Amino acid sequence: MKEVVENTLLKNYSMCLRDAVKVFTKALINGLFDETYQKEHGAKTKNKFFKILERLEVDNENCSWAAFENAFPEIRKKLDLDALAALNRDPAAKSLREIYLAYPGFYAIAVYRLSNQLLKQEIPVLPRMMSEFAHSTTGTDIHPGAEIGDSFFIDHATGIVIGETTIIKDNVTIFQGVTLGGIQVKKNMASTKRHPTIENNVVIYANATILGGDVVVGENSVIGANVCVTESISKNSVVTVQAENKIFQRK
Predict the structure, then answer these.
(1) Has this prediction a pTM greater than 0.85?
(2) What does the alpha-carbon distance between residue 148 and residue 190 come to, in Å, rounded to a whole number?
(3) What is the pLDDT of residue 4?
(4) Which residues of 37-74 are buried (b: 16+ CB within 10 A; e: fewer)?
(5) 96: closest CA among 220, 106, 160, 183?
(6) Which DSSP string do the residues of 178-221 spell out, in sequence order?
(7) Cα(99)–Cα(109) distance, integer angstroms
(8) Which helix H or strand E contains 48, and what residues bound it?
(9) CB atoms < 10 A from the CB of 111, how many?
(10) What are the φ and ψ backbone dihedral angles of 75, each rounded to 5 degrees?
(11) 16, 100, 211, 230: least surrounded by Cβ within 10 Å?
(12) Using CB atoms within 10 A of its CB, is residue 189 exposed (0-12), middle (13-18) or buried (19+)?
């Protein structure tokens, strides 16, 4: 144990890479939504990618920039659907421009879709660093390993946690403070499904908590604010907390 600790303390972890990944992720998103930016800065973004991998001691031969770049059109298509979902579901949204430029939930989804692609390409560490950049910027923690379908809308964003093995299908809306997590935290469960499945057309309101890999929230269901769910919910359900508010007049 002493030897392990000593080796850990001596190893150089290049903490400044956090800043490099922040710059890289911003450049990716800028290029994804701005053709002029991509033409002018695309080569620099590619170079940033390989420099980060080099400093992470990742074998560049197994990390294809071409495969990543080829995925951009599909990622952009999915993000356009996410933006339309926000516009159609949020009465406060005035335009698509507002969604793209001002909605933290949309920004968090954009970083997720990019980091998820890198994870699919089996690139280590970098996807997780990208998700942590989005977390620090938006307050939304989406693990890049989660599976998220089309037309996903996060409203207000702050305090949301979506775990690694979560499955979210199409047309799902979640509000601030929602946790899609594991009911147990054990290292030997690392390779098992620990987080819930959310079926199509589900709405999950603020501060709801849904825990467990076997839990499925059925399609067209509504999970109310402050609900804690640890068992499956059948489709077309409405789940709420019954609470009594007592109001007293001050004297």
Answers:
(1) yes
(2) 20
(3) 55
(4) ebeeeeeebbebbeebbeebebeeeebeeeebeebeee
(5) 106
(6) -EEE-S---GGGTTS--S-EE-TT-EE-TT-EEE-TT-EE-TT-
(7) 12
(8) helix 35-55
(9) 25
(10) -65, -45
(11) 16
(12) middle
- Beta-bridged to residue 179, according to DSSP, are 161, 209
What's the sign of the alpha-carbon dihedral 242, 194, 154, 80? negative
* Segment 36-49, tens digit of pLDDT: 999 999 999 999 99
Q: Inform me whether the pLDDT recorded for 225 exceeds 70.
A: yes
Q: What band does 186 get if pLDDT is binned at 50, 70 and 90? A: confident
What pLDDT digit, counting tens, does each position of 7-21 carry? 555 567 788 999 999
pLDDT at position 10: 53
Give CA angle at 239 (235, 240), nearest 5°.
Answer: 170
Q: Domains plus CATH for the chain?
A: 1-139 (1.10.3130.10), 163-251 (2.160.10.10)
The residue type at 147? E
Residue 123 sits at the vertex; the CA angle it makes with 122 and 125, to the nearest 5 degrees, is 125
Share of the chain above pLDDT 90, in %: 82
Query: Is 26 strand, coil or helix?
Result: helix
**Using CA atoms, how far apart are residues 217 and 205, in angstroms rounded to an integer?**
13
pLDDT at 67 over 60: yes
Contact 180, 147 (CB under 8 A): no
Residues 6+ away with beta carbon under 8 Å from 234? 218, 221
